[in-house]
Write a structure and sequence with these properties.
This protein has helices spanning about 10-30, 35-55, 60-65, 70-75. The chain has 4 helices and no strands. About 70% of the residues lie in helices and about 0% in strands. The protein is mainly α.
Length: about 80
């Protein structure tokens, strides 16, 4: 496990970067034109970034980015 210390400004910046990345991946996952393999790769990356964001995000904010994996499997 790797530990990192951030000041308040850095925490806000990390929060912003992770949210923007999650937004972009959600947008890409909704694009039906993408190949299934590409969408699966994005979904795996999304899970990793979401877990990073979940370590410090408030529950209300986190619920905006939660995905229902069972529903998303049938949309391919």
């Amino acid at each position: 496990m790797l530990g990192m210390l951030f000041n308040d400004k850095e925490c806000k910046e990390l929060d912003y970067v992770l949210r923007k990345e999650l937004d972009e991946m959600l947008f890409d996952l909704s694009d039906q034109r993408l190949d299934t393999d590409v969408r699966n790769a994005i979904a795996r990356r999304y899970k990793t970034v979401f877990r990073m964001y979940a370590r410090f995000a408030p529950q209300k904010e986190l619920s905006k980015y939660a995905r229902n994996n069972k529903l998303s499997q049938f949309k391919h």
